Each structure stands twice: as C-alpha cells, then as structure tokens.
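Hi P.,

Sorry for the delay on this. The queue was packed all week, but I finally got your sequence through. Input first:
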Amino acid sequence: MARVYNFSAGPSILPEVVLKQAAEEMLDYKGSGQSVMEMSHRSKVYDDIIKEAEKDLRDLMDIPDNYKVLFLQGGASQQFAAIPMNLMKNGVADFIVTGQWAKKAWQEAQKYGKANKIASSEDKTFSYIPDCSDLPISDDADYVYICHNNTIYGTAFKELPNTKGKILVADMSSDILSQPVNVEDYGLIFFGVQKNVGPAGVVIVIVREDLIRDDLPEFVPTMLKYKTQADADSLYNTPPCYGIYICGLVFKWVKSMGGLKAMKAHNEKKAKILYDYLDQSEMFMGTVVEKDRSLMNVPFVTRNHDADLEAKFVKEATEAGFVNLKGHRSVGGMRASIYNAMPIEGVEKLVEFMKAFEEANK
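Then the structure:
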C-alpha cells in the first residue's frame, strides 16, 4: 500500500528517509550484529549514539555550554510535576494558560506550591494568545510557564512574554526544531518528541545548570531530580534507547535540510498554502486569530459548523489518503498538523482535495 499523508498531531509523521535508514539498520546497526533495540545502554556503541544525538541537537539549537540536555522518559506530562518539584524554591510559579496542556501543567503544579494563573485565553476557547507585555508577575515567582505552541487550538507565541526578570519555562513539544530559538531566553525548555522529532516515549529537557539543585525536598523521587539525570548523562537507568536513536536520525535530517532557518522557511511556505485557502474558502475557515496562528497545527471548521458535513469530509479525506484530520475531541472540527516532516506536496494535495470537496458539496 502507498504511504498516506499523515496529518496526526502526535505521534506523527517522521521523515521517510529516517524510517528507511532505521529499517536498513534494524537487524544490524553499523556492523555491530545487533539492533539498537537490543543493545546494552552501557555499551560503547550505544554511548556513541546518545552522545552524537546530544551533539547534533546542541548544534541545531546552538545550546550554550551552561545548559544540560537530558533524554528522559515519561513524556512531557511527567514534566508537569518534575518542573515544580525541581524549580519551586519559593514555592511559587506563574502560568500563562493558552490551552489544554498549559492548563494541565498549572493544575499539576498546584500540588507542589502556589501556582498562579496570570493570563489565559480560555474565555474564547483558547483561540488567541493574550497580551503578555505587562503581566502581574509575582514578586516571589520561581518561574513563568508557557506552552509555546498549542497543538489542540493552533495558536503559537510569536513574541515571548515579559517575565520581568523571572525565569521562563517553555513546553515546546509541538514546535521544537520548526524555527530558530534563542535558548538563553529560557531557563528550561522541554518537549515530548512524538510530534516533531521521534517516536513517543522520549522527553527531552534543556535546563540551565544553575537551576539543577541538590537541596530538593525529601519527597522528590530520585528519578525526577534533574541532578540525578544530569550527573549520569541521562544514563542513570535504562533510557528509551531506540527512541533516542530515532531522534538522533531526525536531528541529522534537519541538519541536512539546512537547519532551523531553512525549516522555518519550509514551514511558513506550507502553512501559507493552507491558511490562504481557508481565508478565501466559502465552506471552511480557520479558528484562530490571524496574528497568533501556529505554523504546525491548523484547526479548521465548516463556516456553519455543520457536524455531518465535517464527518463526511473526514471520512472522504481518509479514503483519499489524507489521514488523522479529525479535530481534537475537546474542540471538534478538523485539524491538519503539518510538522517538519510533512512535505509541501502533502499540503498542496490536501488543499486540492478540499477544493474538490467544496465544489462537490456546495
């Protein structure tokens, strides 16, 4: 069967060249006579894999030497607990709630200290990013938290909030490596890899060294201490070895594509094709305020919110080889996730299909 165009929000599309290389190396990784899936994480051959993956990520993002890169498991959701446990020195954090995942992080942090919601866009179903130029930042806040790109709602921060000198923590699960990032603007960046980097099961944390503390409360699990993981170079216990290997292949692919500036241009071009069509379509429309639109996740609905027509569209699109276009269960409608690995041709063909569907269902 031919490969489909996969618009899933995550786990999501991976570069075909990466999948082919992984397939070629499945039984015998570089003459070792074994699969990466079966080799010891303490072996020299695996140590080279994880170290090279880290080096390539550092190169791509220009990560300064005073930041640690941790390859962990538990997904981004586990970091909703790990971050307050590790960073709440005063027991206070401020949250900008722009979607479901930021909301979950804010709720989780309330178990470990005072979590203040200082801005939110929930009043309009998270369809915009609130003005963050002069927020009521708490004097004793240990950090300010954002979700950089909102997978469900299709919004993204184009400008970072004014944190008034407080550390910024960002969940970049759904837009990591899609554009250049100045790592020094953040105290901590984390991302589940299953949207833009690799298979589900790995979360990567990029944390400034001075935030890695030894004086954590007794209740913090050993495994969730950044110090435990940093001191052991992400090898305190068996890491998600195969997932990290795939991430490493994706980092090399992004490099081969020209790095993050080239990726941004590629992503802007793709997103423009889809947004331009939605803006002129008589049947479909986007759901996000124009200035806050994500390059990665494009939610859309029919103009009269016709649930039957939307179900028909998703069904026919799936049959035509455009899969996973159903919107998140919390918002309905449709959503096209067009991550780095989605080729421009995939978006062009989707728009062609949408035009034909619109014509046939006037």
